[in-house]
């Protein structure tokens, strides 16, 4: 008996980054009536190209309950336990779909965890889930551990263009810090599964400086992943990495791109860091 892990594409991990025991389900992206599946017929580069030309904001789907049933049942039949770790329930109905599937399959061999996160913050929690699975921890203990540790996952990012958050209706409390001046860039985080603004700066460079200052004053758990992310702005992300090294001496383990499901709402030019609080 083994534990299988199910995640979704909003973690922005390519399938070839995942071990065999992890299954990634697609959160589809629609430009007008055209359907795209991340990492299948839509690369991250293609997405931002389409986004820049789109007259209307693309929309994303959720993973439905029948898809979960179809994927999970063969795993159960094979004698495996199943951990489902989803995008924040505040941003997608995928978590509720997974809960419906669990009720339909009617077994305690399925654990469903709402990450309360998205994109590379969600990725960081997936790494933790993989570590616990590979340690041999039982399913119920993994579920409890993830529900505890997810509150310690911290994301800080600077948004370059809030047009996409506004259009997508995902701006949440970030709207409180917005002005009409183009140069104002909010620093955002996740709290209780939704976007909140923690600060505002004049320009991207000051935004990067603010992120570094906030990280410097934080109690970062250096035993867990530290990840940088960006939406089609690698050089800006590398600037953040270099500034972090200069100010905090924190070595970042990887840089990843923010994909279609989240890039739809963040837009291009966003960069930030994810870490675990000690």
Can you describe what's shown?
With 278 residues, this protein is an alpha/beta fold. 37% of the residues lie in helices and 24% in strands. The chain has two domains: 3-151, Rossmann fold; 152-276, Hypothetical Protein Tm841, Chain: A,domain 3 (2-Layer Sandwich), CATH 3.30.1180. It has helices spanning 44-53, 65-77, 94-105, 119-134, 139-149, 163-168, 204-216, 234-248, 260-266; strands at residues 3-8, 22-25, 29-31, 34-36, 59-60, 81-86, 110-114, 153-158, 184-191, 194-202, 227-230, 254-257, 271-276. It has a six-stranded mixed sheet, with helices on both faces. Strands 2-1-6-7 form a four-stranded parallel sheet, sandwiched between helices. A three-stranded antiparallel sheet has the order 4-3-5, with helices on one face. Helix 2 crosses helix 3 and helix 7 packs parallel to helix 8 (234-248). The protein starts with a strand and ends with a strand. 45% of the residues are buried. Residues 172-177 have low confidence and may be disordered.
